[in-house]
Amino acid sequence: MSDQMVIRMDDILPVLTDLRGIVDRKATENRDVRDGLNGKMREHIGTRNTFNSEVRELISEVQHQKGIRDESNGAVREAKSERADKNQMVRDAKDKLRELSPESEQRGNQNDRRGRRDKEDTPASLRRKIEILENEFERSIHTGKNETKAMLSMKQMKRKLRDMTEKEDSNVELKQAREQLRVAIDSQEAAHQIVESAAQIAQEAHDLMLRLSEEVDKLREQADASQAQVRRAKREADRAHQTYIVSLRCLHSIHDIVRAKNNKDAGIDTAKGATARVEVQDLMSKLMSGETLSTDELMALQRGGG
């Protein structure tokens, strides 16, 4: 019959005592790692929530700017329609003025040598020509016979301008036509300014929408990155927590063995230590089911209830 190795409890206790210290330190390390990761997870959640809050605010502003843009684009369409009406009024006023202008009566079929219609003088064109000649005289451009010729031309233009002005002044209908043209041009310009102003507001709102949308995309990317860090920290914290639980269960087993040996040596009835053991098991059950334990309860678990 082969010899059998007999292992005595007294031989195991020193080993268990050393092992208990090692497991206890490991449990503490895992708990600290878990708590640190949970703290990081809460920080990442706070950062993510901040980004998401900014995203919601910017999206609200984007919608506000979209409303401004759409409203302004509607105003542009209305203003363009109004401007088109004013443009037609200007054309009609010009046509009426040309019909009533004295030079229109003189046009007839006057053509130049190449068969093109002569461009008749108007009060405005005569004033421009006279002003040009006067400036040329001031700069002494015309001299000698050319000066006499230019002076005669200017006198003729001034006389023609005076005759035309007197004729126009006596023509009430022509005056009214000129006034109508002036009013039409003013209305045309005002309508154009409304179009330009509304178009500018619409464009600025659209440009701001684009900038805000780009910022929203950037913030969403940052929020997604923070959420990824939340998930990563949670996975690592869960692993550390599971390792912590394993360490606690090992400690409990060691505590049970050591407690049983100590109670036996001291002649203590094992039933008297049952209450502490039940408390430890209750705490362990809570921890395994995912409930949150206080620091004192966790320390009690790690001590094994003793």
Q: Structural class of the secondary elements?
A: mainly alpha
> What's the order of the H and E elements?
HHHHHHH
**Shape type:** rod-shaped
Radius of gyration: 50 Å
How many strands appear in the DSSP assignment? 0
Q: Average pLDDT, to the nearest integer? A: 78
Helix content: over 70%
Q: Which stretches of 5+ consecutive residues score pLDDT under 50?
A: 1-7, 104-113
Separation, N- and C-terminal Cα atoms: 44 Å
Q: Supply the number of helical segments.
A: 7
Summary keywords:
306 residues; mainly alpha; 85% helix; 0% strand
Describe the structure.
The protein is 85% helix and 0% strand. With 306 residues, the protein is mainly α. The longest helix has 95 residues, at 172-266. The two termini are 44 Å apart. Residues 1-7 and 104-113 have low confidence and may be disordered.
Topology at a glance:
Layout: H1 9-100, H2 102-107, H3 123-138, H4 144-170, H5 172-266, H6 274-288, H7 295-303
Helix pairs in contact: 1-5, 3-4
In a nutshell, what does this entry contain?
The protein is mainly alpha-helical.
